[in-house]
Amino acid sequence: MAELENIQNLRENFKKHNKSCFILGASGATGKELLKEILKQQLFSNVTIIGRRKLTFEEVAYQNVNQQVVDFEKLDEYSASFQGHDVGFCCLGTTKAKGGADGFVRVDQDYVCMSAESAKAGGCKHFLLVSSNGADKHSIFGEAEVKIEELNFDHCTIFKPALILCDREESRPLEWCARKILGCLSHAMSITALSVPVSTLARAMVNNAVIPSDKKVELLENKDIHRIGNQDETKTS
Fold it and tell me: What average pLDDT does this structure show over 113-138?
């Protein structure tokens, strides 16, 4: 993409517009890394995290982050939390082991879709969602993707990563083993089809936010996430 060759210029131009963003799921591994990357690049004049509880930060870089505590079961009562944001990042998600089958559907589909509806009503122009690699329209992730596409955001980007290499608070034995194996192999060879470091995913999300696009809906597979997320490294190598 020609736009990627000018990522630094695009960032500088983006900053001039004093845009506001919110992050859903900032307490999770992807959300934490995303928040860190957003603050590092200083692209937004206002950064808000929306979640079920207030998070504690010790670093000075986080002192101006706004926090909105909401009840996702009564999200229509918290419409003000979604007002006035140009860009929305959604990293909401849980596991069947942690939330049970019903809880998994409730978070990964219902909460995601209700949050997207609130974001749209609040004036959000660009909605960026972390979904799942290989999700089809009949899966929980796929159904959420379809519903969000139907909301007709000015621009909607759906990230479909493979296994995300990170340290999660909750332990999933098979996934933990896969991360360790792929993490070791990634140092010896390029494995862009099977996994992606959480830092690369976060950079891809932030980079995508500043890249102009004439597409209403953009689906980014794992290889696309690597390409966009590693653009800085490609330019400096």
Answer: 91
